Amino acid sequence: MFRRSLTLIPCAARALARPRSLLTTRYLQSAAQPPTANPDMLRDELKARRSLKTLHPGRLRSSDFVDVSNMLHPRILVDNDRAYFRYGACGISGLVPFPPNARGFLYYHHDPELPPTTGEIRFRVTPDNDVAGFECGKDLVGLNGSPWAMGLLTLTKTSFEPFRRRLVEDGLFEPALMQKLVERWKGKRRLLNPHDRAVHYLEQPFTARLPQGLRISIVTPDGIGSARHELIFKDRRAHVNAVPYSGRVLLRFERSRLPEHTGTRSVVIRVLKILEPIEVVIPGYDMRLPVPKEGDLIHKHDLRQVLRPFSIDLDKTRNLELRDIGLLYPKHT
């Protein structure tokens, strides 16, 4: 079930009355309709006299306050340029509108202990446009239960250039690295979903849904890529030839410590947590492929039908859909 509700951390002596600010006229726009074809959006632009001038959390002003409540594809002025963003999408049903009370400040979030590519634009919900309320507000929650964010994989798209330029001008992102990521994205865009949360470093947790298998985007200072592998959870015996389980798991790549991988750039995959119960979907299945368990490595049968931890030698793999994992494990480490 999708989480679309917000919780505000109360601020003492702070009125909850909604101020007049940009984007006060609400609208719902079809994802298939060009923005300029919607008269409501044109009226919103005329009302957007003020524009977002910074994404630096320490430099925000009351004029940077925005209200995107119940909107599907809101517009905003970043400096003097139009910019668009969205809350999320749900399968074939299309875009999902922002929740009610989605009012606050867009800002850049980055943990300095992590790679620069982990930075993202978040939305801090506040009761009004008083910047003093930023610290006691709370980040908007996305459809996946994590903080809603526009990550760098999203920001590399051409339509997000105003946000990129603002990050660089705010001194929040190194311009040469930003340009490098934009160029790398152009060469990979057909393989990537820019709205996916990306994996940025080797042991970063990521989710996988069975029976789909491994499907991730990768963004590091060394480049952009993707990894796809439908066979990780698949029983390849001729009479089965399917993934016998359903569910959702939290995984991570790890450097292999197995003796046979000494001196190689090999990775294994560990199950960190079962997010949705694992269920057998093949009637009468003999359980030959082990059920994923928290704390265990993922196992597969090798060519001799011996059960071993699934591993990838990044320097020898012939699977083109797995080679980009090497971005997470550079040769110089």
From TrEMBL:
Name the UniProt record assigns to this protein: Uncharacterized protein
Organism: Lyophyllum shimeji
